[in-house]
């Protein structure tokens, strides 16, 4: 079963199958077009907030929200099973699958919101923007392999991602990035102990709960 609560553009019918939500799908297509025109994900988030378009988690839009959307193969009608897995030596932690275990890719598993051509163009644009910012994909993968929850947890108050921080007595926690950068006047924040986050078996972007 595919969760649609954090999956803009789709609902489920009485049989549990994905069906397109026309209003949300129109927004997804518009976001994709605007991004391909050259508007960055952060500016796109500001535009969506200004227009009053609700985000999938109910808070403000972030650049990460759009990156998660644009890189999600489900929007072109495909479904990649086993993108994440639980290693035998880390039973309480999920990690990205880079070929360590068998995965399954199903094409045309449900109605597409974006054409394959548009989806492919989005991937090219994302990589082009990465090169422009001198962000090496290998460096990103190394960090995500080391901390697989990076980019997977979102603040329930402002919608921004949580960041891993080492605090007092080397206690590892995940904190709201808005709270870290702008303080509690901007967001009351959320604080999740690393061991608690690891026990949640997070395999998809998730709104954090203390």
UniProtKB/TrEMBL annotation:
Recombinase domain ranges (all copies): 7-132
Source organism superkingdom: Bacteria
Pfam families: Recombinase, Zn_ribbon_recom
GO molecular function: DNA binding; DNA strand exchange activity
Annotated PANTHER family: DNA-INVERTASE FROM LAMBDOID PROPHAGE, SITE-SPECIFIC INTEGRASE_RESOLVASE-RELATED
Stated name of the protein: Recombinase family protein
Organism: Lientehia hominis
Organism lineage string: Bacteria, Bacillati, Bacillota, Clostridia, Lachnospirales
């Amino acid at each position: 079963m595919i969760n649609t609560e954090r999956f803009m553009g789709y609902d489920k019918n009485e049989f549990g199958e994905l069906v397109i939500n026309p209003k949300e799908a129109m927004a997804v297509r518009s976001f994709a077009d605007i991004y391909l025109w050259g508007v960055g994900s952060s500016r796109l988030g500001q535009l969506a907030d200004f227009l009053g378009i609700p985000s999938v988690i109910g808070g403000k839009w972030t650049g990460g929200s759009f990156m998660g959307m644009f890189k999600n193969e489900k929007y072109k009608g495909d479904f990649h099973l086993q993108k994440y897995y639980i290693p035998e030596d880390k039973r309480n932690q999920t990690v990205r699958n880079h070929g360590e275990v068998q995965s399954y890719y199903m094409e045309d598993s449900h109605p597409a919101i974006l054409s394959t051509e548009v989806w492919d163009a989005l991937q090219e644009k994302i990589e082009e923007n990465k090169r422009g910012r001198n962000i090496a994909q290998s460096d990103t993968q190394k960090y995500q392999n080391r901390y697989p929850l990076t980019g997977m947890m979102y603040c329930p108050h402002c919608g921004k991602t949580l960041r891993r921080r080492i605090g007092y007595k080397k206690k590892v926690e995940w904190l709201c990035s808005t709270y870290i950068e702008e303080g509690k006047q901007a967001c009351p924040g959320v604080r999740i102990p690393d061991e608690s986050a690891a026990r949640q078996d997070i395999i998809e972007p998730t709104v954090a709960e203390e």
